[in-house]
TrEMBL record:
PROSITE patterns: VOC
Descriptive protein name: VOC domain-containing protein
Listed InterPro entries: Anthracycline_SecMetBiosynth, Glyas_Bleomycin-R_OHBP_Dase, Glyoxalase_6, VOC_core
Organism: Lentzea albidocapillata
Cross-referenced Pfam families: Glyoxalase_6 (PF18029)
UniProt feature coiled coil, ranges: none
Annotated VOC domain residues: 6-124
SUPFAM superfamilies registered for this protein in UniProt: Glyoxalase/Bleomycin resistance protein/Dihydroxybiphenyl dioxygenase
Amino acid sequence: MARVTGIGGVFLRSRDPVRLAAWYRDNLGVPMSEKGTVTFHWLDTATNEYPGTTTMALFAQDTQYIGEPHQRTMLNLRVDDLASLMAKLKARGVEVLPDTEDSEFGMFGWCVDPEGNRIELWEPAEGM
């Protein structure tokens, strides 16, 4: 069954990612790297085979990765079967973007919610 299995990450646009990363570190105790990323590991549901992680990453203000310029954030959802879920979304009339990406981290695809927000769907690579 194609379904979402958790939140894979939250991505934020930033006018100054280095400064914003420092603000999250200094004010909220988020252990952001100098590049503006942090990965939280799931302790309750992790297994050796599927450790599960959630990532927060900051992107430059002018990035096109997150979607239209007015979209400040993008939700990344972990899925267990990207191809089936994308087909299911298309069948339901959901706007599904035509490109997918296969990387060392797994397979990625994108859809758009009714308010125009791009959502990233992520089928993690084996062991992620």
